[in-house]
Amino acid sequence: MSESALLALPGAVASPSGGPDAGLPWHYGDPLGEQRAASTAAAVVDRSTRFVIAVPGDERLSWLHTITSQHIASLPAGSSAENLSLDANGRVEHHFVQTDLDGVTWIDTEADRGPDLLAFLKKMVFWAKAEPRDGNELAMLSLLGPESGSPAVLSALGIDSLPTEPYAAVALPSGGFVRRMPWPTEHSFDLLVPRESLTATFTALRDAGARPAGSWAFDALRVEAVRPRIGVDTDERTIPHEARWIGGPDQYGAVHLDKGCYRGQETVARVHNLGKPPRHLVLIHLDGSADGRPETGDDITAGGRTVGRIGTIVDHHELGPIALALVKRTITPDTALVAGPCAASIDPDSIPPDDGIQAGRAAVERLRGR
């Protein structure tokens, strides 16, 4: 995607070139204040480089259901879901959010992965009545904070209320739609608006009291919520269990465990029923006094041994320097870690539960009389 038109607004500082948000505003002069606004008031974030795909056609949902990991065959109109495309070995190739509205399924994903996802979808149509195409006539903004539903903001959008349930979506009178998301904050909404009205919509929301916030603020809140970003917090070996993507839409996941066959399902079923993922996604705290920071993709070590991989690194307005990391499941929170030039530690509250007995393993034990 080319640079966002919003970079021309006063105070906009561009995101680092070569990074995942290149072409977007990184902040508007006060990144920590922007985070506070997104948590306590209202803020609007430019995410217009996300790649959008439109899929019209009578069989769009039943077709997508067969080639992806989420249960979406009967997704109601005005509903959304997170979804994955896996390779034959169950490794994550694409993560996307989809919304079905007025006879079209709208898919949005990372800018650098969108063309490959669109090419894959076109290749897999075969005889289905589905017509995936470039849908970048819509551009994304995110509206965050408990005051997102203020009368002034609603008036700027031309609607009476925002969706109340996660993943619910309603059409906007000026085109596009708004959907509620369960992350990065409790009050999070994605706006997909006509690209030609991106600047007008953003400035209307700003004038209605939503503070302009950059990608830095969005990332800080996303990391705090322990929500991964594909290609940043994942690598070519990542399977869904490692990145917390297991679950249906009601569980805010992207992999439904009770659906028909799809590519990569064998790995998902095997890990769920018999094993445990080799790594898991956690929040780590970095030593802010260190001379420098790690970079995405750097190793995390314990006693000189590699035990994980660094993902998103960001300064949080309350937590200080934090990051997401994929670490070996056996590493405990009290393990002294090193990430680049920094000492690091796992936030114990971010470790997912790992004490359950898998259904398949329990069945094996019963057969063995244990």
UniProtKB/TrEMBL annotation:
Its EC number is 2.1.2.10. This is Glycine cleavage protein t. One of its GO terms (molecular function) is aminomethyltransferase activity. The keyword Transferase applies. Pfam families: GCV_T. GO terms for biological process: iron-sulfur cluster assembly. Residues 33-243 form the GCVT N-terminal domain. The keyword Transferase applies. The lineage of its organism: Bacteria, Bacillati, Actinomycetota, Actinomycetes, Mycobacteriales. It comes from Rhodococcus gordoniae. NCBIfam families: ygfZ_signature. Keywords: Transferase, Transit peptide. InterPro entries: GCVT_N, TrmE/GcvT-like, YgfZ/GCV_T_CS, YgfZ/GcvT.
